[in-house]
Amino acid sequence: MATDSGGRATFESVDWSSVDGARYRPATRTVGFLAALGVLVTSFAYDYLFAAGPLVADWSPTPLDWLSLVGVATFACYVVVPLARNRQLTRRYWRQLRRDRLALASLGWLTFFVLFALVGPVILGDPETAPMGMGASQGRYGIPIYQPPVGTSVSEYATTVCGGPLSNGKCWGTFLHPFGTTNTGKDVLAFVAQGARIELKLAFVSGMILVPVATVVGSVAAQYGGWVDSVLMRYVDLQQVIPAFFVYLVAQFLYGGSLLLMVAVFGLLNWGGVARLVRSEALKKRETAYVKAAQAAGSGRLAVVRRHLIPNVSNAVVTAITLQIPMLLIVETTLSYLGLGPMQSQSWGYLIETSIHDDNFPTLVWWGVAAPVGFLVATVVSLNLLGDALRDVLDPRTDGHSDGGHR
């Protein structure tokens, strides 16, 4: 290789094909994603066309389950794998993040929430059944309705059956029903676990639809400009004229409510604001030296978008998505409270509604409101706090000097 007197590579020795977007070879993670997608599509076709019973053991996947698996493959290939391969960058991110105690607490809660949503319904079973598989109807005297949470008590006359110890005219909570039971004897902890799984599916699958679409649209609009930018942004304007919330209400009236419908509507029609934020950030990145150098070296527009713009707007995407996902959780809970939810009988909103409208509320069954509201508030706040911290971590301008540790 030809070098100058300082030992640096000369102009002639540079492999300019490495910066030319004409010779595009998919990255390993893209190949892996396409392979995983092929397996999922094949499995879906087999399940839909040929399988007469459950696909695996007792599991009969729904269309939303298949979308969830696609989301898992996307997250693994484009988030987990890059972080695992670039350990130095991952360690730098972690060092910055752990300075913020609120962010660490938020990460801890969200990790617990995900595990609880995945494993909780399996362990706790149906809300009609007590935790650890012990049926509520297997109590010595029948179903314990209005059973208070552990550490609290109600009058022994408030419930026909006390599932916990009786003392001084009080019925005390029991670890058999740690969050108590409803006025029909449903276990509140199991109910919260079922609702958490619904919220997780909604947030995860909607996010996996919303993020790629918004990122690509915003980056392409910023890089191409002109009529491409005008067309894409005018579509975003049109999309935002009619909010996804009202589209969902109309679609539910016409086709019936389902979680898949809600995911499709909010995932496909609620990315306009994120795309605008990405476009704004990409316009700034387009004027940076490394993008100018890539263009001068002959990189095509798509190559610039793929290699330079999309990887450098992650902080804007994280900021936007941590505002969108909490909104989706609140909307789903609100719709279920109003009787318009996609999975009415399993949602947090339904538990809140039935508890509030009980004749004995708030003297009794206040725990049917406190538990889901507590989970919802903790999850929404954690998403916002963690998103704010990740914005600083992923922003190269902060270079690790954010004030997160002082919050």
From TrEMBL:
Keywords: Cell membrane, Membrane, Transmembrane, Transmembrane helix, Transport. SUPFAM superfamilies: MetI-like. Its main location: membrane. CDD domains: TM_PBP2. InterPro entries: BP-dependent_transpt_permease (IPR050366), MetI-like (IPR000515), MetI-like_sf (IPR035906), OppC_N (IPR025966). PANTHER family: D,D-DIPEPTIDE TRANSPORT SYSTEM PERMEASE PROTEIN DDPC-RELATED, OLIGOPEPTIDE TRANSPORT SYSTEM PERMEASE PROTEIN APPC. It is a multi-pass membrane protein. This is ABC transporter permease. Residues 196-387 form the ABC transmembrane type-1 domain. Belongs to the binding-protein-dependent transport system permease family. It is found in: Cell membrane. The chain crosses the membrane at residues 31-51, 63-81, 102-124, 202-224, 364-387. PROSITE patterns: ABC_TM1. One of its GO terms (cellular component) is plasma membrane.
